[in-house]
UniProtKB/TrEMBL annotation:
Any one cellular-component term (Gene Ontology): plasma membrane
Domain Sodium/calcium exchanger membrane region as annotated: residue spans: 38-186, 222-360
Organism listed in the record: Sulfurovum lithotrophicum
Subcellular location(s) per record: Membrane
InterPro entries per the UniProt record, alphabetical: Alkaline_pH_Ca-Antiporter, NaCa_Exmemb, NCX_ion-bd_dom_sf
Name of the protein: Calcium:proton antiporter
Main location: membrane
Pfam families linked to this entry: Na_Ca_ex
Membrane-spanning segments: 12-31, 37-58, 70-92, 104-125, 137-154, 166-186, 220-241, 247-270, 282-304, 316-335, 342-360
Keyword tags: Membrane, Transmembrane, Transmembrane helix
Membrane topology summary: Multi-pass membrane protein
One term of GO molecular function: sodium:proton antiporter activity
Lineage of origin: Bacteria, Pseudomonadati, Campylobacterota, Epsilonproteobacteria, Campylobacterales
Length: 361
């Protein structure tokens, strides 16, 4: 009875189902006009973001149940799965070889410069400086530099004849890297990703448990929310493609839309964490999500593109390469002292503003 009462409050799920039925019924009518495409796009985008908030809620409950770094790992994995589902669906509809690359690039810009920058500004205004474990930022940045360099920069210097072979090599290497990094994060060097005072177990004391949180309930609803987002994203891709074609906008705008949807749960959680003076959680979310995006999304889109016979280009453009390089360089300078402040957040947010401006140049 208690579970039914809880489930009756899953408003985002019910709204998503109603929206799916309504939009599916009127889809053929809406796609016939510019106004109809805009209405369909707007409604679906809002509903998907609302569903993404449900993903954030259930991931937060699981995070509270299991503690860090399991919590942020659950959240980032959920966001990456949403991202992979939407990218694959849009790749099948748009047949754009650059879509996956642009989405991954947008997700990195959004997570590190947008999300982390905004959280550092908010936390800095409230607390001045916010501490975190510098070992975590160093580990994430080293992995990001390696993964992005190998998968998205190095292909520019390799003979195109060997690109396909190199991409399949990356699938194996990246899955191996993610398994090793996850083992380090959860077992051998778990303390790298914790900060004293942010809720992990104190030495000699038992961890706080939350028996009132039903892990199965939140896990099932988390999966259902991701599935619902995927179903709605398939219809969204039609309206988004028509709208971009009508106004002559680049597909990169659509890629940013995908990144915003997948990052919505992380953004909500990160801002809450910054307000609560939990910068370690913000670091784990922002840098962890970026790393998961590269190490998991790239193998996924390579495998799907091979299976479906789709063309795929993961090589960054010169502008994208420069923006990624600036982002990682500024991150290495800023996140080497174990504390964030308003200035550091502002620098990253400025890079995010530049990223948005360059979309229209």
């Amino acid at each position: 009875m208690q579970l039914l009462k809880q489930f009756s409050k899953e408003y985002s799920l019910f709204l998503a189902i109603v929206t799916f039925i309504g939009i599916s019924h009127f889809e053929h009518t809406l796609v016939q006009s510019t106004a109809g495409n805009l209405i369909g796009l707007g409604i679906l985008f809002v509903v998907i973001i609302y569903a993404a908030m449900s993903v954030a809620h259930h991931a937060e409950m699981l995070a509270e149940k299991f503690g860090e770094p399991y919590g942020t790992l659950i959240l980032t994995m959920s966001a990456v799965i949403v991202e992979i589902v939407i990218i694959v669906i849009m790749m099948m509809h748009a047949h754009n070889p650059d879509l996956a690359r642009d989405t991954i690039y947008s997700a990195i810009m959004l997570d590190i410069n947008g999300l982390l920058g905004l959280a550092a500004i908010i936390g800095g205004l409230k607390y001045g400086e916010q501490p975190y474990n510098v070992d975590s930022s160093n580990s994430y940045l080293a992995m990001l530099l390696t993964a992005i360099g190998v998968a998205m920069v190095l292909p520019e210097f390799i003979d195109p004849v060997y690109h396909n072979r190199f991409m399949m090599f990356n699938v194996v290497v990246f899955i191996f890297l993610y398994i090793i990094f996850t083992r380090v994060q959860l077992m051998s060097h778990k303390y790298f990703f914790e900060y004293k005072g942010e809720g992990h177990c104190e030495e000699g004391k038992e961890c706080e448990v939350h028996p009132e949180i039903n892990a199965w309930y939140h896990s099932v609803n988390l999966v259902i929310s991701i599935i619902v987002i995927g179903v709605l994203a398939e219809i969204l891709s039609v309206f988004m493609g028509n709208t971009l074609d009508t106004f002559g906008l680049p597909m990169a705008i659509g890629a940013v839309g995908v990144a915003v949807i997948s990052a919505a749960p992380e953004l909500i959680t990160a801002v809450r964490a910054a307000i609560d003076n939990r910068m370690q959680t913000v670091i784990n979310i922002a840098l962890g999500a970026s790393l998961a995006t590269v190490l998991l999304t790239i193998p996924a889109v390579i495998i799907v593109s091979k299976y479906l016979g789709l063309e795929l280009n993961l090589s960054l453009t010169p502008v994208q390469t420069m923006m990624i390089a600036l982002t990682l360089l500024v991150s290495m300078v800023n996140f080497n002292d174990g504390e964030t402040n308003v200035l550091e957040g502002f620098l990253h947010f400025i890079l995010f503003v530049v990223f948005v401006f360059l979309l229209f140049v």
